[in-house]
Amino acid sequence: MLDVGAILGSMTLGRLSDLTFGRRSPVALLAVILASLIAFSLKFFIFEEPRLVLLLSMFFLGFLISGLNNLI
How many domains does the chain have? Predict the structure, then answer.
């Protein structure tokens, strides 16, 4: 799921940076904040969440972190 999120995140974050006239800073800031919130919630609730929530969390972490890495 991490790799699927990375591919979709690269395309989506790239398109968002194109919509902001090629400025990557606002998109990067939003991606870092959202990835931090997801990682923070996983740290404290990882054993209480069902498997589907963990899979979705991995997808969105790949979407945000790897997508941002490919954007930069």
Answer: 1
Q: Which bin fits 43, alpha (ψ -120 to 50), beta or left (φ > 0)?
A: alpha
Q: pLDDT per residue over 47-69, tens digit each?
A: 887 889 889 999 999 999 998 88
Q: Residue 67, exposed/middle/buried by CB under 10 A (0-12, 13-18, 19+)?
A: buried
Query: How much is the pTM?
Result: 0.84
3-state secondary structure 19-46: HCCCCCHHHHHHHHHHHHHHHHHHHHHC
Distance between CA atoms of residues 38 and 42, nearest Å = 6
Question: How far is C-alpha 20 from the geometric centre of its chain's CA atoms?
Answer: 18
